[in-house]
Amino acid sequence: RISKSPAIFDLEKLKYFNSAYIKALSPEAFLAVAEPYLKQAIHNPAIDLGLVAPLVQTRLDTLTEIPPMVDFFDLLPAYSNDLYTHKKMKTNPENSLEALQLVVPVFEGMTDWSYDAVHDALIHLAEEQGLKNGRIMWPVRVAVSGKPTTPGGAVELCQILGKEETLRRIQQGIQQLTPQA
Q: What is the mean pLDDT of the chain?
């Protein structure tokens, strides 16, 4: 009573179940299984893997997707200025340069580098300038990550990278966006 037809192996269904299992893990259990993959991409001991793990947990089908998703924390990749153009956020390289130049003195003057402090500083800057939040957040996110998609927003990335590295990457973004004479 055994059928001669081949068994059906649905890879998409397997990914779905794997993703559901990953999302169901507690944050501590997820960090335990994800840590080897996080360490493949992040070698900088200053980066708190405990802060990175929750950002990727809800975005995964398999654990092997982690390294390319978080490699920018270790080393900022070379990226095109086209990433600064985002229709929904109404950003382009020119107004992104202005936004980054506005962010630098705000970040330099900060003494508390917590999630809330970074978030409030960026939101306050946008309100002060009469801009939508995305006009400030998108350029910061691109400057600190160099990627079109990231597992977290500008605030999370800045918090994880720390003040010095965030400012260094924003300065690098300003240099890259500044027209050469």
A: 92
